[in-house]
Amino acid sequence: MKPQRLAGATLGLALASALSLLTGFTWADAWSAEDKAVLASLSLDRLPPAPRDPSNAVDADPAAAALGKRLFADTRFSRNQAVSCATCHAADRQFQDGLPVGKGVGSGSRRTMPIAGAAHGPWFFWDGRKDSLWSQALGPLEDAVEHGSNRTRIATLLMANYRSEYEALFGAMPDLAGLPADAGPNGTVAERGAWQSMPAHRRHEVNRVFANLGKAIAAYERTLHLGESRFDRYARAVVAGDSAGQAVLSAAEVRGLRLFIGPGQCATCHSGPLFTDQHFHNTGVPPRDAARPDSGRAAATARVEHDEFNCLGAYSDAPKSACQELRFMVSGDAASLGAFKTPGLRNVAQRAPYMHAGQFANLDEVIAHYVASPAAALGHSELAHEGSGSVHRQAIRLSAAQARDLAAFLHTLSGPIAETTRSD
Prior knowledge:
Layout: H1 3-23, H2 33-42, H3 62-72, H4 85-88, H5 133-142, H6 151-170, H7 189-197, H8 200-221, E1 224-226, H9 230-240, H10 251-261, E2 280-281, H11 297-305, H12 324-327, E3 340-341, H13 363-372, H14 400-411, E4 417-419
Antiparallel strand pairs: 1-4, 2-3
C-alpha cells in the first residue's frame, strides 16, 4: 500500500473521530467514495463464478461431482483404511482439521488448507506446487504421511467399487488384470521398483485412471461455496447508503475494518471477495522447525513445471494455449524464497491455528507478528519495519486497542459453506 494512501486513511480516521465527538456524526456515515469502492471489491457480491478448468473436462458435471463426493469420503484409498480426504477436510470444521499440521497415516509439515472457493485460484497448496484442483487431489493419495497409497492399488480399488460410475463419465476402464498389487512412482522402494517393471503403456493406463479419479474429486470440491457473512451485509448497506443495515457490525468491528483497509495494510494482500490476491509472499513467519526452514514457493515451481499431471501434461484435457498460468510461470525469483500463498480470510476466525505450519495459536498472535515485523529465516520479508526504507509499505503501527478492533473485524468474515448441486 502506498504511503500516500496510508496517510489519507489515518487522517480520515482522525477527522471521523472528531466529527463523531462534535456532531454525533457516526462511523457508519464517514466512508469516503474511495473506501466504499474498496468495501464493494471485498464483498461476495463481486465474486464471479469460478472459472472453468480446461484441463478437466468433467469439472462442471454433476455426475462427476456426485462420484467425487463419495471418493472424497472413502477411507479405502488409504494405506491403513482409516484416512480419507474428509479426514483433513472435515465438513464440520470449515473443510480443514484444526491442527497445526495435517495428520493422515502420519504427520505432515504444513497446515491443511480449506477448499471451499479454492476453484477460483490458479495454484494449489501453500507453495503452489499444483496447478489444478484435480492434480492437487492426487498428491495426498500417494504421500507417505497422508493417504500413503500407490497408483495400482488405487486404480484397482476404483475398478472394484466404482466401475459403473467411472465408465459413465470416462469410458471403459482398461484391463487391470496382472498388475502388481502395489506399484507407483512415489511409494516405497519396492513399489517404485514394481512400477518401473511395468510396460510403459500399462503405466499410462493406470495414470489415466488415477488422473480421472482426481478430476471427479475436483468436480465435487468445486461445488463448495462460501456463504454470506456479516461483513458482506455491512458492505452492501454502506454502498447502498442504508444506515439501518450498517448496524450489523459493532463500532469496534467497524474500527477494525478501517484498520484492515487502511493503516493495518491487510488488504494489500488480502484483497478481493475471497480476501486473497492468490499470490505468494514472504512475511517473515518463523519456521516450525528452526533447523529446517521451509523454502516455500522457491522449491515448488520446478515441481509443478515437471509434474506429469499439470495442465500441459498427457492427462490434461486442455489445449496448450489454455495453460497460460503454467506457460508463463515465474521461476527463479529470489522473492519466492520463503514465500507462501496468501490464504483467504473468509471464516478465518474458525480456522485456528494459523500460518502455513500452524505457528500462531490465535488471531492476536497473528496480528502481533505483523506489527513486530521480524526478519525472515529464509529470504527477505516483505513487511516494513522502522528504518527499512521500503517504498511499497510502511511499518504497521497498531495500539493494543487497535489490534483488538482488527481481530474483532476478522470475526465478521464468518459465514456458512454451501454445497450446490451444480459445480458452476
